[in-house]
Specification:
Number of helices: 12
Structural class: mainly alpha
Oligomer: single chain
Number of domains: 2
Radius of gyration: 20 Å
Shape: globular
Strand content: under 5%
Distance between the termini: 23 Å
Order of helices and strands: HHHHHHHHHHHH
Bound molecules: iron/sulfur cluster
Length: 181
């Protein structure tokens, strides 16, 4: 065995696939027989040479946990469910990918943009801060004011999801090196 092959083998976590099937949405991971229909119909794959749902599924099956959970490409999925409609094995591909995203998120591995969105949500109740100029423009156009958000109620709901801990973990992780697909 070459040194390179040894290195790759050491990256394999054979238990990973069983971890995935226990996560809601990931149950059918092992049913994939790699026909490639999901990739050929995926609208995101049409625009990105690197985004391949079939490949993500295969890497998860093979136990390449670090590569899958650290991959930014995982987050390109638009959750359009085209793959789920087309899979001949009846696999909810979009749900498997969502399960993998959830696993990555639980370990704080999320792209910075999602951290910013979450931070804005906690602070303002909106996923992005609405500039004062936009509010004035709405008034000038005679549009109704934006709905007021119950920040306290929202914070309580998010507390149940442990969002703050999740943001703390992801802040620790952001300095770690990434492994790309
Ligand atoms: S369409 Fe279904 S069986 Fe085919 S590669 Fe995608 S997930 Fe696997
Ligand atoms: S749900 Fe995600 S992987 Fe499936 S077709 Fe849509 S963008 Fe592609």
């Amino acid at each position: 065995m070459s040194k390179d092959a040894e290195f790759k083998t050491s990256r394999i976590n054979p238990k990973f696939r069983y971890e995935v099937v226990k996560v809601p949405g990931g149950e059918n991971l092992l049913h994939c027989f790699q026909c490639g229909t999901c990739t050929s119909d995926c609208p995101v794959a049409r625009f990105s040479e690197k985004y391949r749902p079939r490949l993500i599924i295969r890497m998860a099956q093979l136990g390449l946990k670090e590569r899958v959970l650290n991959s930014d490409f995982l987050w390109l999925c638009a959750s359009c469910f085209t793959c789920t409609d087309r899979c001949p094995q009846g696999i909810e591909v979009a749900s498997v990918i969502r399960a993998l995203k959830n696993m990555a998120a639980m370990e704080g591995r999320i792209p910075d943009v999602f951290k910013v969105i979450l931070g804005n949500l906690l602070k303002t109740g909106y996923i992005y801060e609405i500039p004062e100029s936009r509010v004035r423009r709405r008034e000038a156009l005679g549009l109704p004011p934006l709905p007021k958000v119950n920040i306290e109620g929202l914070a309580k709901s998010l507390q149940n999801l442990d969002i703050k801990r999740f943001l703390e973990v992801s802040a620790q992780k952001s300095s770690e090196a990434k492994i790309w697909v």
